[in-house]
Amino acid sequence: MQHPDSYFMEQAIRLSAKGRPLSPPNPAVGCVIVRDGEIIASGFTQKAGGHHAEIEALTDAERRGVNIEGATVYVTLEPCSHYGRTPPCALALINHRVGRVVAAMKDPNPLVAGKGLAMLEAAGIPTACGVLEEEAWESNRGFFTRMTRGTPWVTLKVGASIDGRTALPNGESQWITGEAARQDVQRLRSESGAILTGIGTVLADDCRLNVRLPGRDPAEIRQPLRVVVDSSLRTPVTARVIGEDGLCLIVCAKADPKRKAELEMRGAEVIELPGSDGRVDLRALVSELGRREVNDLLAEGGATLNGALLDAGLVDEIVVYTAPILIGEGRGMWSVGPYKRLAEAERWAYRSVSRLGEDLCFDLRNQRK
Ligand code: AOF
Ligand code: ZN
């Protein structure tokens, strides 16, 4: 039988997923409050500046009129101890006289880093830490990666035919994968802090790269930053990726002042990050996005940008949607290599395979660590 602590932590982790679209740059945390083996209140992280998971659960308890004094609190991340956008959750739990606090893992944020649990202990509230830690780490891998590495977790996404083609030689690509896979891409986007693409994709598809969730009020959706790698600033002023929300960052190697001004007039931000080869320094870009508090970066470019990201060792995860269509000649998923020996090629590990309508979705992780 599963230990009750793992059982309730699993519920908290499941609940945390609901916060993922809104919480960034905060981690999406879940919290359940338990008495006599029953969940009596719960909550998850709201949008940054709003309630943390614990405060949501305390508010939920109040709304339900349940007494939480002496109850056990399960939370997927150590309660915070600092005054950030919101006051410390550890303090709120102390004031509500909860009986015990179980955290899945410590908060690597240097502002917290064990102090939340220490505060609780100092107030006489027993704590435990490390229940379903791996699952909890996975649930906020972007935030934890940014906190420890300073850069976002980078996921590269491709939609391709079973023969690994993303478009016909003439560029036609709509649509290779089916509706369910495309919906899943919307979910990935909605959980990302930024979406990255290249100028080739912007010119070929005039993509918007925004989040569109049917049945949801657009005003309620947090839109990720859209980032275009555009070495020589060829993005048309009318490109749909610029949008009207001021959330488009165009990164070039050298900016022609007139073009820069034109694009900025349209609401895009233009920055220069020159690499040694006249192209954009992708490593510097990823660091810049880390500084801008992007936890999860979703790369949705073509073969050139994908290859450059992979060759630079900047990708943590690859998500491939493959459709049962045979295209033959066409554009590839990524131009990596070329390698002289198979041993030089980077080997990845499958983490999961799932079926999405007619298509399959492969989730891969790199073997570096
Ligand atoms: C929690 N519960 O649900 C989350 C936490 O600026 P603030 O006040 O919103 O604090 C943000 C920091 O709090 C964030 O960087 C992370 O360390 C922690 N997130 N903590 O107790 C939560 N989301
Ligand atoms: Zn908190």
From TrEMBL:
Pfam families in the record: dCMP_cyt_deam_1 (PF00383), RibD_C (PF01872)
Cofactors, names only: Zn(2+)
Recorded family membership: In the C-terminal section; belongs to the HTP reductase family.
GN (gene name): ribD
UniProtKB keywords: Hydrolase, Metal-binding, Multifunctional enzyme, NADP, Oxidoreductase, Riboflavin biosynthesis, Zinc
Keyword Zinc attached: yes
Binding site for NADP(+): G159, W175, T201, D205, S231, G302, A303, T304, L305, N306, G307, A308
Protein name, per record: Riboflavin biosynthesis protein RibD
Protein purpose: Converts 2,5-diamino-6-(ribosylamino)-4(3h)-pyrimidinone 5'-phosphate into 5-amino-6-(ribosylamino)-2,4(1h,3h)-pyrimidinedione 5'-phosphate.
Record: active site: E54
Cofactor note: Binds 1 zinc ion.
Catalysis: reaction(s): 2,5-diamino-6-hydroxy-4-(5-phosphoribosylamino)-pyrimidine + H2O + H(+) = 5-amino-6-(5-phospho-D-ribosylamino)uracil + NH4(+); 5-amino-6-(5-phospho-D-ribitylamino)uracil + NADP(+) = 5-amino-6-(5-phospho-D-ribosylamino)uracil + NADPH + H(+)
